[in-house]
């Protein structure tokens, strides 16, 4: 019989095995804790998978906390992992580990040499709605990695954390660019390209509003649809990537130069690019139109598409009006992200 999470603190943790050529292990704990947050893509989704740049923003008010403990397996059993997931009203409670989590736990064991006969008990308290393009799966994976490292007293490098999260993302979504795995742990806006992230220079002040359409996005389906479109229409891939890279670079410059009025149209133009690729939905389009009609400087789908969320750049004095119009147009939830100037940034 498995130990309940409440009983975990009464157990004596297994002694950590030595890790060759690594920093000395800290003392193992009875409960480990890890945290991560949501993210949103400002521009560059899909194109980033093909090496084009993407701009990402952290969403710190949507967070996930993982609590990890351990218990001995039953008679004749081997170590495994059990998961309890709570937090988001749109996320049903799960008591079985997903395939991605199982692989993540197995890779963590191998990477830091944790005994295979230890059964892991993980509780995820996640406020990030799944399937909305907000990085829920990557944030959960990062929180689990950090919780396990804390549980077993291991020093894990940022690169190792990224690699473990990226592995779980590849299971969840197929080929992943790495932007989600990076952005869910970033303290500020990022420019991400070809596996490398750097701080994004921001000279603007303003607000972004993210609106949840209530539709569950399907990243794998969206990636497949885009790829099939490239195959059916010769030259479409080149056009999409060239246009996406141009809009993203111009948006990056507008962010740095304190020109929010110039930034907004690039968002809307990128939405049109994704809509032409059949990655938007009627509900997302309605939210974009409502945001623009209410005074937003620009608006677009954010994330993989075929559902999920929309993001709009809004003058501060229009935030209330835009939010009300979005809810009237069908938004299930909205979140406000302040855009704060931070010109003295440098590569991460």
TrEMBL record:
All copies of domain GHMP kinase N-terminal, residue ranges: 113-184
Keywords carried by this UniProt record: ATP-binding, Cytoplasm, Kinase, Lipid biosynthesis, Lipid metabolism, Magnesium, Nucleotide-binding, Transferase
NCBIfam families (UniProt xref): mevalon_kin
Gene3D superfamilies named among the record's database cross-references: 3.30.230.10, GHMP kinase, C-terminal domain
Gene name in the database record: mvk
Species annotation: Streptomyces venezuelae
Family: Belongs to the GHMP kinase family. Mevalonate kinase subfamily.
Subcellular location: Cytoplasm
Top-rank EC class of the record's enzyme: transferase
Domain GHMP kinase C-terminal: 252-331
Protein name, per record: mevalonate kinase
